[in-house]
């Protein structure tokens, strides 16, 4: 199906707003400001009703790690540790992909959720610090979630890579393994696999893309280099056997879709139970947008059902 009208309107608005700027910096700032206002307007009326929220911090190997805990009203039947996306250098607990997804998983699946504010990569923070934070949060959450039910580990985009890396570390070093991995449009490989010619042609409808230079810069900021990248940094290069059953949400119009598709094939090859959901008409990061969009809601339901499959 074509790109969802929600996103085509957003793209047109970003382009119009950006055109008012004189420098590249001004254009980018105006574009981001429009996108932020657009999504906030679309989220009008959404709230966290029925979910108790608590901000805490736990000890980690690099200092305190902020967590935001979500517990639905009444008894809950499992738990999730969730990692927002943002290319390893952006994002926080307040973005909808962090806060909103956590609320929705708590409500839809009847589980407790911990959203982890891992350290973002910059000039001083590099791999493996973000993984260290997620792994420490996972170990704490498995001891403190307060449930005998299934516990999932998941994230979106870069956060999905960190969740997968933490699961690999748990497999190799011991500890409570996740019952299910929930990976939304994961960025799991470097170099990023190329799209098929047919998919490349369809992506012409999307004005904002993951160009090769941008992916290089994302990895360089995270790892410090684009050669000799550690296998668990972008974990599609790692040994993947022995992982928990996995659910993958894929955005239809996404340069990183090739990474998600390859990861599914890799997991199948080594005997990991894996199931994917293609969110039609969606672009990368669609869980950062309102669940009033049908395919956003469907993606959340796919994850929620996977917790108790």
Automatic annotation (TrEMBL):
GO molecular function: hydrolase activity
Keywords for this protein: Hydrolase
SUPFAM superfamilies linked to this entry: alpha/beta-Hydrolases
Pfam families: Abhydrolase_3
Record carries keyword Metal-binding: no
Domain called Alpha/beta hydrolase fold-3: residue spans: 80-286
InterPro entries found in the cross-reference section: AB_hydrolase_3, AB_hydrolase_fold, GDXG_lipolytic_enzyme
PANTHER family, A to Z: AB HYDROLASE SUPERFAMILY PROTEIN C4A8.06C (PTHR48081), ALPHA_BETA HYDROLASE FOLD-3 DOMAIN-CONTAINING PROTEIN-RELATED (PTHR48081:SF8)
UniProt protein name: Acetyl esterase/lipase
Organism of origin: Glycomyces lechevalierae
